[in-house]
Design brief:
The protein is of the alpha/beta class. The protein folds into 3 domains: about 180 residues, 3-Layer(aba) Sandwich (Rossmann fold); about 170 residues, 3-Layer(aba) Sandwich (Rossmann fold), CATH 3.40.50.2000; about 150 residues, 3-Layer(aba) Sandwich (Aminopeptidase), CATH 3.40.630.30. The protein is about 40% helix and about 20% strand. It contains 19 helices and 20 strands. The strands form 3 sheets. A 7-stranded parallel beta sheet has the order 3-2-1-4-5-6-7. A 7-stranded mixed beta sheet has the order 14-15-16-17-18-20-19, sandwiched between helices. Strands 10-9-8-11-12-13 form a 6-stranded parallel beta sheet, with helices on both faces. Helix 2 links the parallel strand 2 and strand 3. Helix 3 packs parallel to helix 4. The chain is elongated and about 90 Å long.
Length: about 500
């Protein structure tokens, strides 16, 4: 039996940094340890940062497929990735804040692969088969289902919270940070590219505002966007600058206290029991840092803007921790309780478990519509995006809809189905005819919260397979999703008349 093939789509440009790459790499290596074959595709060209990524992948013997730079749009990006992968994937893991359900649908349609999204923003429509969010959900209960309710199809499983923190395997059994009564070494790690120069800012606060005269070590990469300035700042402050560390676990565990950004390294520090002042350096860290701080695992400071007030808050937090062994010990204990270093193996097991489950088509069924479905059908029909893709875009009134449904259920030439996954309605398919030897006309609507999930493709395929003779479907020009669904059901675009594409399946 061939090993499962799992591709990763992730960028690591100088502007984005290396955080997405690091967490994907941790998951990829955990998958490979569990028997999978892996490959990466993404944009990582440009200066030293590009070379660093290529070196990282080469060191792990991972095929890296460079995607051309530039914003191609979600559907085109999916096609570019497919063309560059070394093989047909069984699953694709995507970690990218600009790619949404359109990319998921395009990749799924092109490869038949299961889609796994790594996300923590919940700010755009998503349609994966599995979602991994290593960061917390808001609220006291940390409900990830509620966090993603407006952007994720119902029923998509979520691996959520720091228990799924995607850390390198080195963290799980690594020696912890030291416990000393006196702070001897303070370290700084504020990202591999540090576009806003938080490293130099924090170093200045530490030396000048706090008056710390002890040892300071800074970790970064050759891709740091202001490397010459950071070198100069480190030299002037008597700090040691370390670049391209092979193992940040060793770096973290060698210090008594760290100033660090609130990205993925936040969970690395917790796993090693390293007392940390965690800086919010980007908007996507405004959830994780306050959560870790509320859990008592770090002290959080907003550093976006690097204002005088923020510098004062950072200085106060540092003075408190330097002076208080008890406070450092409390952070250590709470951090260790929050993250155990097994998140990547847990997430890898979930991905491989997904591949052992039947695909959407195998879990879908069609049942005849009933009058009790009237409210559901009307809500789907009057959805804004459904109307925009329809030839008749005006909202339908309840009385007119109810009259239409009664006539449809009584029409011997019309079949109206509700597509269900288990007991959950996810869409509808209609077949009209045949009449006088002509084709059967197919039309369909996908439930708004299921768009991009593969439901449309599966339900129309199921309906088409149950119908004999020629089929015909009309799709509004520009509706790429419905065009793909028609093609997947065995219909081919025969002509365009005005703004309508005519898809046909011969007898």
């Amino acid at each position: 039996m061939n090993p499962p093939r799992i591709a990763f789509r992730v960028d690591a440009t100088p502007a984005i940094g290396h955080g997405h790459l690091k967490r994907c790499l941790a998951l990829a290596l955990a998958l490979r340890a569990q028997g999978a074959e892996i490959a990466f595709a993404g944009r990582w060209l440009g200066g030293a940062a590009g070379g660093t990524v290529a070196d990282i992948l080469a060191a792990e013997d991972i095929p890296g497929c460079a995607v051309p730079m530039g914003d191609a749009g979600p559907e085109a990006d999916a096609s570019l990735c497919v063309a560059r992968l070394p093989w047909q994937p069984d699953a694709v893991v995507v970690d990218h804040y600009a790619l949404d359900r359109r990319w998921h649908a395009g990749m799924r349609a092109a490869t038949g692969a299961r889609i796994v999204a790594i996300d923590d923003l919940a700010d755009r429509a998503l349609a994966p088969d599995l979602l991994i969010d290593p960061n917390p959900a808001p609220g006291p209960d940390g409900d990830h289902a509620a966090k993603y309710a407006r952007v994720l199809p119902a029923g998509v499983p979520i691996c959520g919270g720091p228990a799924y923190a995607l850390l390198d395997a080195a963290y799980a059994g690594h020696a912890l940070a030291p416990q000393r009564a006196q702070v001897a070494t303070i370290t700084l790690f504020l990202g591999g590219t540090d576009p806003q120069q938080h490293s130099a800012w924090a170093l200045r606060v530490l030396r000048q505002d706090v008056g710390w005269t002890g040892a300071v070590r800074i970790a970064s990469t050759s891709g740091h966007l202001h490397l010459d300035r950071l070198r100069a700042a480190a030299a002037a402050a008597g700090a040691v600058l370390l670049l391209d560390q092979a193992n940040l676990a060793d770096f973290h565990a060698s210090s008594d206290l760290q100033i660090g950004a609130g990205g993925g390294a936040l969970w690395e520090r917790c796993c090693l029991g390293l007392p940390t002042v965690a800086l919010i350096c980007a908007d996507n860290q405004r959830l994780s840092v306050p959560h870790a701080a509320a859990a008592g695992a770090v002290i959080g400071v907003d550093a976006i803007g690097q204002t005088a007030a923020q510098a004062a808050a950072l200085a106060e937090a540092l003075r408190e921790l330097i002076a208080s062994p008890a406070r450092r010990q409390a952070l250590r204990e709470r951090g260790l309780a929050l993250v155990d270093g097994q998140g990547a193996p847990r997430a890898a097991a979930a991905v491989l478990g997904l591949l052992r489950q039947p695909p959407v088509a195998a879990t879908l069924s069609l049942r005849p519509a009933a009058l009790t479905d009237a409210g559901l059908l009307l809500a789907w029909r009057n959805d804004e995006q459904t109307r925009a893709a329809s030839h008749h875009s005006e909202p339908v009134r309840w009385d007119a809809h109810l009259d239409w449904l009664r006539r449809s259920l009584a029409d011997p030439l019309r079949r109206l189905w509700i597509a269900c996954r288990g007991n959950q309605p996810v869409g509808t398919v209609r077949a009209d005819g045949p009449c006088d030897g002509g084709p059967t006309m197919l039309s369909w609507t996908v439930a708004p919260d299921q768009r991009g999930s593969g439901v449309g493709r599966a339900m129309v395929q199921l309906a088409a397979q149950s119908l004999s003779g020629p089929l015909h479907a009309e799709v509004k020009a520009g509706n790429a999703a419905s065009a793909r669904i028609a093609e997947a059901a065995g219909l081919h675009c025969a002509e365009r008349v005005g703004d309508t594409l005519h898809f046909r399946r011969p007898a």
